[in-house]
Design a protein that fits this description.
- By secondary structure, this protein is mostly helical.
- Helix content is 65%, strand content 4%.
- Helix 29 packs antiparallel against helix 30 and helix 31 runs antiparallel to helix 32 (600-617).
- The longest helix has 22 residues, at 446-467.
- The two termini are 60 Å apart.
Length: 866
């Protein structure tokens, strides 16, 4: 590198100097002082000076726009002005998208060169934004879509995702399934569309949605995504078009077929797509297989008889383990009605596909047929123990399932896969599952199998509910996530019939902690609300458990009024039952709602009662929970030594229990106390340890809390860029799960904007937080907002308003029982001194007294300028 060339690290500073010089030239040309420009742009004089000197390397985009507006720049001047500074979004505000994991293709794509080229041209060049691959079941739509997605990963910078819709039965779950695949774990339909829109933004994304034909009611919702996300393209596979104006339908035809004739050269037959597929799959089944002059005509005839359908060809080719192509052709002739003679009132593609699958079905023995059709009761796959429990009985012994399942795998009717933990998992391809499901209905086994399926997953969920509080927590979270489609199916069956409402109710109650920990908040609340609104004749203890779960999910989303009502109803039930452990749990949850509302004194009293109950009537897990909550309350009240003692005892119990989520929560809370005391290094270490644990178990809300706390540590270290990065990531995660209390990170960002002199942004963020918290009846964190608004008012020269807001902040803090911490006190003193210095002692005393006498509503109105 030449000596006089700036390094990469030097470039932001150099660019900032260029931007500062442009700003100064435009300001002077407009005849404005720094003070006048600051007033017009809604910034501080300090911020203008720092920008002109090149000390501010990363102003917000809205700051640049505000300056351009204040300077009255023309369009050309505005473009040059903005272009003098690299995009903030590119630098910090938006992390580079992580490459999405696509399913591994089980086999090489045979043929389809023309289709692949045409589809890549359509999508790579942004010619169209919604492409639907249509065609018969088994024609190869999914495999082609996966190949297109794989080939386009580089063109889309890794922003390519594959979503299987086959396990879903409810169109309302399509957007939540997309979000879950992308790692956005919220389940709420209304909110999730906004979450997805924000996630895609203006970036180029390719989203593959596989097997959409049974969810066409969701088409309109899907079509809205490309309409508002200019870089998003959808590649959909469906047996039928979506019937949307923006849709580009691309029919996927069967594979090219060979011509029949004795004089056709072997080399020509071997190059035909259908034959190539047959040979490839036959070699996979029998490595010694080869296309020869003696069998090529039979292979060509088989491919033609099967109309070039890939799935049918694969099923037949797998039989070369036992039969030669000529023998297969002879058998094919005998079973021809089964292959092509389906019901005349069915679509032609279903006749053909059903025939192909039915032919393989007829080759199975009676017991293998029984197992095959019964396996269709699973959604999204199954494990061996689930198959043994659900499908056995009435002619099929449990000990036979493994051998018969192995046969079905060998017959290419069942796909065997390996879960991340190394265990085996099985599934039916969707066209095959639908065929098998029809056979179940014909056999009159449907209701019995659905009942067995519900019973199995109810037992699993109730076992998991206990295990999620112990050392196997990580394993059970992953297992429930893998079985989420089966759990949804079981819930739908349990809640769909009066005779099964009790089991459906129990299942929803058992899954509450799973939904809480994995952030499936809206979806969990819908299932629980439906259960609680039903006429299920459940035991009061089970109803109390469901109320408890629903209350926790409501709190997770900031719906504190609903949460408190649910927990108080559960508390009344548990008091009637004399369930002292349950009483303690419900009291604890009511106390947590009170703490969220900022009522720390009442919460502390309730937690003391809870701890006394738990020490006598509950396990170490509950004792640790009460100790943790007391530690949090005392830390907010400034009783740091007592708080540390409670956390130390809680962590000791949690370590003994080897329970990850609770330990991570207490580590994070202990880190908050360390930060409040001013021990920032210790705070950072505790938050980092908590973050690692929470990420390991997929605790989305907890991860956001740890990130936000790390951001606060960086803020008090003066590391504003790092603080902003961490807090913005936390805010993104909180909004993902529909958390209405995501104003915590927003308040932290408001503080950062204020400290940087970005007055308009700080005001906007404070106002939004105040409005949301006041509307929800949550006073916690409001004193911080009022203090920040007081500082902004003082900087703007409105010292009287600043004095009123400062006094209102003090009053609200005292009423909540919160004290200023050592780390917060210097900033408070600086703001207070500035306000006092801006007024005469008499005027300050008068305005301060007015602020002290304000009600909460009056203080909020003052802050909002109403």
């Amino acid at each position: 590198m030449p000596a006089n060339r700036p390094t990469r690290a030097d470039q932001p500073a150099a660019v900032a100097e260029e931007f500062g010089a442009r700003l100064r030239r435009h300001r002077e040309a407009a005849g404005l002082t720094q003070e006048e420009l600051a007033e017009r742009a809604g910034l501080s004089v300090k911020a203008i000076a720092a920008l002109e000197r090149g000390r501010r390397q990363r102003p917000y985009p809205h700051t640049v726009r505000a300056l351009a507006d204040a300077l009255g720049l023309s369009d050309d001047e505005r473009a040059a002005f903005s272009g003098a500074l690299p995009s903030r979004e590119r630098q910090t505000a938006r992390p580079v998208a992580q490459r999405q994991a696509l399913p591994l293709a089980p086999t090489a794509l045979i043929g389809r060169e023309r289709e692949l080229r045409e589809l890549m041209d359509l999508l790579a060049a942004d010619v169209v934004r919604l492409v639907t691959l249509t065609g018969a079941g088994g024609v190869g739509k999914t495999r082609l879509a996966l190949e297109v997605a794989t080939q386009l990963q580089e063109a889309y910078a890794g922003r390519v995702a594959f979503v299987s819709l086959a396990p879903l039965a409810d169109p309302g779950l399509v957007l939540p399934e997309v979000a879950q695949t992308l790692g956005l774990t919220e389940g709420g339909q209304g909110a999730i569309r906004d979450v997805l829109t924000a996630h895609f933004g203006s970036d180029r994304w390719l989203l593959v949605l596989d097997n959409a034909e049974h969810l066409l009611d969701a088409a309109t919702e899907l079509a809205q995504l490309p309409a508002v996300c200019p870089g998003l393209a959808l590649l959909v596979t469906s047996r039928a078009p979506l019937r949307l104006r923006a849709e580009h339908e691309y029919p996927v035809r069967p594979l090219a077929l060979p011509t029949l004739g004795h004089d056709t050269p072997l080399e020509d037959i071997a190059q035909v797509e259908a034959v190539r597929l047959f040979v490839e799959r036959a070699r996979a089944a029998s490595p010694a297989f080869a296309l020869t002059p003696s069998n090529s005509a039979a292979v060509a005839s088989i491919c033609r008889r099967l109309d070039g359908l890939p799935l049918a060809i694969e099923l037949v080719a797998a039989r070369v383990r036992a039969l030669s192509p000529n023998e297969l052709l002879a058998r094919l002739d005998m079973l021809l009605p089964l292959l092509v003679g389906g019901a005349r009132d069915l679509p032609e593609r279903q006749q053909t596909m059903s025939a192909a699958i039915n032919w393989s079905y007829q080759l199975l023995g009676p017991q293998a047929q029984t197992l095959f059709r019964r396996l269709s009761i699973f959604a999204g796959g199954w494990t061996l123990d689930a198959a043994e429990a659900v499908t056995s009985g009435e002619g099929l012994a449990q000990h036979q399932v493994l051998e018969l399942l192995t046969e079905l795998v060998e017959q290419s009717l069942v796909v065997a896969e390996t879960d991340p933990d190394g265990s085996s998992r099985f599934r039916l391809l969707e066209p095959i599952r639908q065929f098998a499901a029809q056979r179940v209905q014909e056999a009159g086994e449907y209701e019995r199998l659905r009942d067995a399926h519900l019973a199995w997953y109810l037992a699993m969920a109730e076992q998991a509910a206990g295990e999620l509080r112990g050392p196997a927590q990580h394993y059970w979270l992953a297992r429930l996530e893998r079985e989420h489609d089966n759990l949804r199916s079981a819930l739908a069956w349990g809640q769909g019939d009066a005779a099964r409402l009790t089991d459906g109710f129990r299942l929803a109650a058992a899954l509450g902690r799973f939904w809480h920990m994995r952030g499936h908040l809206s979806e969990g609340r819908r299932w629980l609300d439906a259960a609680l609104a039903s006429d299920a004749a459940v035991a009061p203890a089970v109803r109390a458990e469901a109320l408890n779960a629903a209350g926790n999910l409501a709190r997770d989303q900031g719906d504190l009024a609903t949460s408190q009502a649910l927990h108080e109803t559960a508390l009344a039930l548990r008091r009637e039952l004399g369930d002292l452990r349950g009483v303690g749990i419900s009291l604890n949850n009511v106390g947590t709602v009170l703490m969220d509302r900022g009522q720390f004194e009442q919460a502390a009293q309730m937690y003391e009662e809870v701890l006394a109950l738990f020490r006598v009537h509950a396990s170490d897990w509950e004792v640790a929970l009460a100790l943790h909550n007391l530690g949090v309350v005392l830390g907010n009240r400034g009783e740091y030594d007592r708080s540390e003692q409670y956390f130390e005892e809680a962590l000791h119990l949690q370590q003994k229990l080897n329970e990850t989520q609770s330990r991570a929560r207490s580590l994070d809370a202990r880190g908050e106390v360390a930060r409040l005391r001013g021990d920032l290094d210790r705070a950072a270490a505790l938050h980092q340890e908590s973050l690692a644990l929470r990420r390991a178990i997929g605790d989305t809300r907890g991860t956001a809390l740890s990130l936000n706390n790390l951001g606060l540590v960086a803020r008090y270290r003066g590391e504003y860029v790092e603080a902003e990065r961490l807090i913005e990531e936390a805010l993104h995660l909180r909004r993902q799960i529909g958390d209405k209390l995501a104003t915590g990170p927003a308040i932290a960002l408001a503080d950062l904007a204020r400290l940087r002199g970005e007055t308009q942004l700080a005001t906007q963020l404070y106002r939004e937080a105040i409005e949301v918290r006041h509307r929800l009846g949550i006073t916690g964190r409001l004193p911080e907002c009022l203090l920040g608004m007081a500082a902004l008012a003082c900087d703007a020269g409105n010292a009287a308003r600043a004095a009123r807001l400062l006094a209102a902040s003090d009053t609200l803090r005292e009423q909540s029982g919160i004290v200023l911490s050592p780390v917060e006190q210097p900033e408070y003193d600086q703001i207070s001194s500035a306000v006092r210095a801006s007024l005469s002692p008499e005027d300050y005393a008068q305005q301060h007294a007015i602020g002290r006498s304000m009600s909460l509503d009056q203080a909020v109105a003052e802050a909002l300028g109403e």
